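Entry 12.
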Amino acid sequence: MKKILLILISLILMSALIACNNPVEPPTEDYQQVLPWQEAYIALLRQYEEKGDRMFFLLHDFDQDGTPELIIAGEYENILYDKVYTFENGEVLRLEYGESVEVASFALSVNGAVWEPPNNAPGLVTYLSGTSSRWGRNLFLSKIVIYENSLVIEAYGRRRIDVVALRDLTENSIEYTDADIQKHIHWYINDNAVSEEEFYRIFGVVLFDTNEWIHPVRITEDNIREIIM
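Predicted 3D structure (tokens):
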């Protein structure tokens, strides 16, 4: 009996020594818990990935409920994709919106951008620059929010530069100040004239700060995993 006991103890010590010299490798798979909205968006994006390399996406939490919306932007067989999805009651729901609500053209255009509204307000700001002059560009902005199961424009923004008046001022006046120039740069919210400060209060001051823009990324397996997860 003693001999058997000694053999068992020797086997146990030998197994422990082998385990120390050959530690078990940690699992290589990613065991991060996948949330239902993540799983649903991944499946949807993989369907869009099959449409080619001109498809892009981005995430943005329009209503700040903790679950971001999925924006699809791109082109396939000469069709512009401009779709926004949300996750509600355990399933993906496509949000409805009219022709006046544009996301893809702003997000993908070299003259456009999208970003978060200031002061942590809900919604998404879209921006598109217009004609250029020596005094800057005309600007067109929208603040888009979710209303029920639709995207709607809560506020329009526009900066209009009176090029004719400024040309007359700079060509016919010997002396003029920056304040004189600013009198001919007009700011509007919903076609109502406002101050520059009020304009920026609604739409933010990141017009030319690309670090604050939300950039769409190409739909690839790597980007799906990196952004969604």
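Annotation: The chain has a mean pLDDT of 85. The chain is about 30% helix and 35% strand.
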